[in-house]
Amino acid sequence: MPLLDIQDLTVRFDTGEGTVHAVNGVTYSLEEGETLGVVGESGSGKSVHVLSLLGLIPRPPGRIAGGRALFRGRDLLAMSEPELRAIRGAEIGIIFQDPMTALNPVLRVSTQIVEALVCHRRMSRAAALRRAVELLDLVGIPEPHRRVTQYPHEFSGGMRQRVMIAIGIACEPKLLIADEPTTALDVTVQAQVLELMRDLKKRLGMAMIWITHDMGVVAGIADTVQVMYGGRIQERGPTRAVFHDTRSAYTWGLLRSLPDHGQAPEPDAEGRRPRLLQIGGQPPDLFQTPKGDPFAPRNPWATERCQQEVPPLVQAPGGAPGHMVAAWYDLRAAKEKAA
Amino acid sequence: MSSTGTPLLAVEGLTRDFVTRRGLFGQPVQVMRAVDNVAFDIQAGETLGLVGESGSGKSTTGRMVLRLDDPSAGSIRFEGQDITRLGGAGLAAVRRRMQVVFQDPYSSLNPRMRVGESVGEPLRTHGLVAGKGEQRDRVAALFTQVGLDPRFMDRFPHQFSGGQRQRIGIARAIALGPKLIVADEPITALDVSIQAQIINLFLDLQEQMGMAYLFIAHDLGMVRYLCHRVAVMLRGRIVEMGPTAQVFGDPRHPYTRALLSAAPIPDPDRELQRQRIAYEIVPPPPGAVMQEVTQGHWVMAA
User: Is the pTM of this model over 0.90?
Assistant: First the structure.
């Protein structure tokens, strides 16, 4: 039995201007200890689909319009708020992008970690405080004995994110959900946090869903990559397969639009500098019910069928096991033809 | 510190102090030096990238160049003219030739004004269009130039996506045919698939109009793509500056090395091989000077 098994998850937001089709039939499963990197842009549904599992989208305007999500065999979508509260922070830990909004600014760090342990783990306060110090040490905060009694504002951005991680893993969750946890950090601090997470994953053996827009970040942390667009999964599979045997035109466009870190672009004979390969067009309008493949309007290889009918997510022909793609077109054939 | 001719922009000894605490009688008790003795040139048609982490002083430097913030010391020369203390009509004249593109175009566009009016506003203010008809024609041409459908002129800012709003911001910035554009993190808030579009637009416009850019950013990959030269800032100082290929290919300052080695690579094989160079940030020593290691490549002694 997988740790998490999501079937046909559909999330809508009813707003004054119409219904936002935020998540449209998302199906996947996550094994114990697996790290899933979910990549997408704003409006892709990458964050909303996970937050909706945990009862963390405002309802209304949000509403779960369909599907089920079995976590260790129990449907999260059918749970009451008290049941979800017992799971959040205990069996499922969460780290957000902005620790300043997620941490309580008027409580000492020790209080915030101790509360979680006393509440979910039924530890004594003294034992919980000892554990809090251990946790700060584990996430690489110097002088944990002294710093545990400080308030969130007394920590720098990177250290504050480490405090969030310490709270996220305090109850040794089976699953840690990280929503853009390094996006607001400077690149050198991000590198340290990524190293810390790789190390913690190895030591604690937890599964992780890492939500990001950064293909570089998932390249270094994920076992499985899932690319989302317009509230749907466009492609998912083992990380190397998705990067090196890309099957979705959207994934391919994302990877090609990034500057190559290994090479400097050379100007041509007239001194004209090369352009980045760009994905044309604009992100999808989520107010419209997508009739076909949501990426079709921006996809140079889209077929007539892509405009009319939503492609199912299926095993990529000749690809690695578990490498799935939702496409009516054949990207490999199209690229060969172009070459 | 640069190569030939009178530079378009020459900044020397630029310093900005912020008073972080005042005493009982308002006298400064604690001063934070955000920008410390910064010097650089930009030639006409050239792009200088200014990189560094949050709090390194790169945005404050950009704001002083634009004269949106007043330096505590140092000088700014633009087209040979000292503009450090310029005000009134003199400053207004300079602003025709020096424009800005912000990170979030939404906050810099009037939400109640039709975007065509926002783009045409500088033309009107500077008396460069005779009437409404001429203004609309000029704005339509600007829209086309930045890749926007001129039929969108009568819409309001909230009706556009982030990438389109940034195009509107750029159209407004190029309306007066400036010689220099200061772009402060112009792609940071945009989706990945839109970032490349905007970088390409910057390259196109530079080829068409010959503008120089001061491009402030933290995305090193994009800086490498767009910029002729790059300056690395650390705690208010420039610690390394030179041709982009030199700085990226042969970084000399330990902080530059740490910064370059920290950027994740979008390729699992290379990313897992990447060796990160750690650097315990030490503020540059107060008297440290820049030394030229190869032609045009300057490094501060660590």
Answer: no
